[in-house]
Amino acid sequence: MARSVRIEYEGAVYHVMCRGDRGESVFPSEGDRETFLDTLAEACGRTGFLVHSYVLMTNHYHMLIETPEANLVEGMRWFQGVYTQRANRRRGESGHLFQGRYKAVSVEAEDAGAFLRVSDYIHLNPARAGLLAAGDAELGGYRWSSYPSFARIGSLPAWLSRERVFGCCGLPDERAGSRRRYAAMMAERVRECLEESGSGRENQAWTGLRRGWYVGSDDFRDRLQDLAAARASGKKRASYRNEGLQRHDERAAERRLEQACEALALTLPELRALRQSDVRKQAAAWWVKTGSVVGDEWVSRNLDMGSRANICRAVQAYRRPKDRARIILKNKMTKCSD
Question: Measuring CA to CA, which of 293, 304, 310, 316 is 20 to 30 A from 13?
Fold first, then answer.
């Protein structure tokens, strides 16, 4: 099965989530939840991870974490592996606890709106799951979340920080006044969440956070695409499943296709309209294939090349062209990138 590319860099922020194997409970008892948090504290001490918000549900968890070092994979491997061992030992069981690999969605740390959107999503999980009393907009009653520590008096563990979340909310400090204002803001968010739960508007926004691969601006997306491509450099693209990597590859192919059109003095519709055996269309297919890692399906779809065999013939014909027409076109293509 294809794996997602883990994009790691210093100072990266991620929305990390994982469900129980076969949808089963990860935290059947309070003791399991306490063990999870104790193990998380150890993981943060070992790796330098900083947790900005978290919530433990019955069969899954969510965390907003920052990695001052580029060590997400190493840290999460230790954390989930050790927690699984400890949980199994507590229950006298063995085997997998989590449903495959965790999901880590990159979050643009510099984008206050993106950062706060993920933190709100995490803290509002108990409300969306119907775990609050009817008509209750107070999240503080749900113990297994970072929210009570954010809204109430008391020191935080070294691995948990509310400073960045408060800053994104426009709160100047972490004193009593800011904590009360944060609690009031979240109570309003709970009311909005409960009111919109049946409208689909809120659900659509939450679905984007759960299923997307990044949260942030278009520039942030482009940077992630380049990082994903660098991470997968020299490896089979089919081994990875990542939208960022796919889009990076497609961008490279699109640039090559534009260069081909310019060198051939044709528009893309004119190029597509040529016969599949036309030497100009073959030249464009060769140029895209030799300068990008998109699959034959992409080339066929964008150039109207038909079967994979047509693309293979085009690439072969231009690898060592013998006829004058192809030699001239190959030189044109090569010069267009200079």
Answer: 293
